[in-house]
Give the backbone structure.
Amino acid sequence: MPIWNPAIEQMKRSELKELQLAKLKQNVKYVYDNVSFYRKKMDELKVKPEDIKSLEDIRKLPFTKKSDLRDNYPFGLFATPMKKVVRIHASSGTTGKSTVVGYTRRDIENWAEMVARIASAAGVTEDDIAQIAFGYGLFTGGFGLHYGLEKIGVTIVPASSGNTKRQVQLMQDFGATVLVCTPSYALHIADVVKECGLNPKKDLKLKFGLFGAEPWSESIRKEIEKNLNIIATDNYGMSELIGPGVAGECLEKNGMHINEDFFFVEVINPETGEWVKEGEKGELVITPLEKEALPLLRYRTGDLSKVCYEPCKCGRTTGRIMKIMGRTDDMLIVRGVNVFPSQIEEVLLDVEGVAPHYLIIVDRKDNIDYLELWVEVVDSIFFDEMKKLVELEEKIVDRLFTVLGLKVKLKLVEPKSIERSQGKAKRIIDKRDVYENQNNSKNC
Ligand code: ADP
Ligand code: ZN
């Protein structure tokens, strides 16, 4: 399989590090000069851009958290005037406000380059027809993959997500050879293919699947590969950093090659903030090295994994992020949407008649994620008439839909029926086991 940008993807590690350092220095100065939030933080830490003399010196810089984006909602961390910003995307934040990100024209071009590399690594060439079944809109998945695949010269079918029977029909009629979506949606598509009486080997032309935006286990990979008769690769990213395209697997399927000329990846102990030993598990902290509109420093992703720098059989020299093994926080990803229990709690606290006792149950039925919420009502409401209970239920479901963008299955339950815990309240039951076996995954 051809390598999209051999000059970068096969660069000697010593040269790559030099390139990273040069870009880091420039970026830190850019951030210091253009974002008052960072200038203030760096002044407090008494660190100046000139103090960054080696890649290790990045540890002198402040971390950025998701809450920093929220506190500066919507555009407070942007480094360019709005006239230079050509695109906005957003994903759900920890509370009602979403995390907003912006792109200059050059950011969009660089993004396409990153995605072109990971898609090529996953087997895609200009001869392919790719059906993108990621949502197009504020979510970065659809547009992110679109521009990268277009750069390769792929024929794109921008189907977006949903209407699965039609997806299958399009796939059959247009002869898609590549499917792009979340892994859980791929499983669902596979079910519908079967329901339609189709045999993927005979009736479809699919060869490769590029999946990301949520955690998935090796057993889900095997199931998708078997049910759709494809090679399925994993790719990783997040809106704050650019969207998809931070890292992606090659056909060795053993870790996601990082676009290291665009991102510097640290692995830290989430408790102490210190670097873990090379190859050990920790929280990924990622610094984009040349973003114009939203250049973050040391972004705490909350994702747990390991990074491997052993040479890969594919010939690329870039480091690899092994499969994501968990989160440092309680963020759930339901149908590709980030859900924080705090968002749910905030909605509930605002509704009269419910007690602050709830239980979130996430499960997957027929390969579709669903979120069930049990909420205790107060005594006075519980003994009220049915009509009031139904109204209350509708109100909560509506409000949650506005905040999360997800339809929640709500169950109002009797006062004091949710088990009280002795210590930390257990409010989430995730039955999907998406990080299954990842913790004892092989080193690269
Ligand atoms: P997206 O727009 O891709 O949903 P978000 O910024 O909303 O991006 O969410 C990013 C988060 O999604 C990541 O921090 C990570 O937890 C999760 N994620 C993205 N890709 C993967 C992946 N390949 N494996 C596991 N988790 C992933
Ligand atoms: Zn490789």
Summary: The pocket of adenosine-5'-diphosphate (ligand 1) is lined by residues 91, 139-141, 212-215, 234-239, 243-244, 301, 303, 324, 333, 336, 338 (CB under 6 Å). The CA atoms of residues 146 and 156 lie 7 Å apart. The mean pLDDT is 94. Residues 13-34 form the longest helix (22 residues).
